[in-house]
Design goal:
Mg(2+) binds at residues 190, 263. Its main location: membrane. Its EC number is 2.7.8.13. The chain crosses the membrane at residues 20-40, 70-89, 95-113, 133-155, 161-182, 202-222, 228-252, 259-278, 284-302, 344-361. Helix content is 68%, strand content 2%. It is mainly α and 362 residues long.
Amino acid sequence: MLTSLFFERGATFFASGWTQFAAAFGLAFLIMILFGRPFIRMMHRLQKKGQPISENVPQEHRKKAGTPTMGGLLIIAAILIPSILFMPISNPTGWIALAALVMFGAIGFVDDYKKVVSQSKKASNGLSPMARLGLEAVCVVILAYLINRTIPLYIPELSLALPFGIIWPLGIFYYIFAYFVIAGSANATNITDGLDGMLVKLYMPVLVVLVVALYGATRIGFMDTVMFLPAASGLYAVLGAAFGAVLGFLWFNSKPASIFMGDVGSLALGGFMGTVAMLLKSEIIMAIAAGMMVLILLSSFIQTMYFKASRKITGTGKRVFLRAPLHHHFEELGWPETKIVERFFIMSILFSGLALVLLKFA
């Protein structure tokens, strides 16, 4: 009798979205703090030489040789365990977000593993660009199909939901749009992970925006710009766990980093972020909040395209930036790594603030 009453009250207590968020946040953070140091020691033993430092980075980064990588494995575990414990099991939205985390994490793991085993300083010794883009496309198709099956009955399938109740049917182009959102997010976070602690600091403000969008989506009339999506309540525990895990990882990843998250972490967090945005129908808001990551991704794309075009026209490749991505450009200008991270963090807060304004008043 007492046992039944205990579990009944416990179920009622954890029925609250914010309670799920807080519980998952606390447990995820605790997992990172308690197991972070043992995990780092284990990675040191397994990897021996640590992550090879790419040739395409400033000389200052050579000092980081030997730092273990694949810290993203612990991040994924710290998100999965609290999420499964505290989220409503029957709600599909949480499972879809976790599926994105695991699938993109698996792609990153293969990439990291190949680099660590080969100990090559060339990125090409990981997954080839075509193999990686192909695997990401397969993941996106699966996720987009699942997301499309969870939409409310009043939203037509393969449609984009815009603010103020505007529905834009995309048809088959829905999957192309999903690729840009989910795979684009994954690659943006991946290329942003270039300085100690930077990805986490740029990622957390975006998480704040997604949490506000989640609250708006699960409260009728809270925001006119957000569609009412009661099923999205399954994301409270998942986002809480993600927040706790990345904050806990920063404890070990701040300069000087004791461990890198690797592609397994950066791709997982990016795919997760894009998937949650699609589940909340807040893709455009998420893109604005992640504006600093978008700029970093664009800097690399612009550098590559301009170099190839100028080489084809003049025979000599020219560059827009001293070095790409953008953070390495500022390193070449002489900015200390910590100053770059803090200033990019400030910019991420400003982008996220703009996203919150648009979320409420657009």
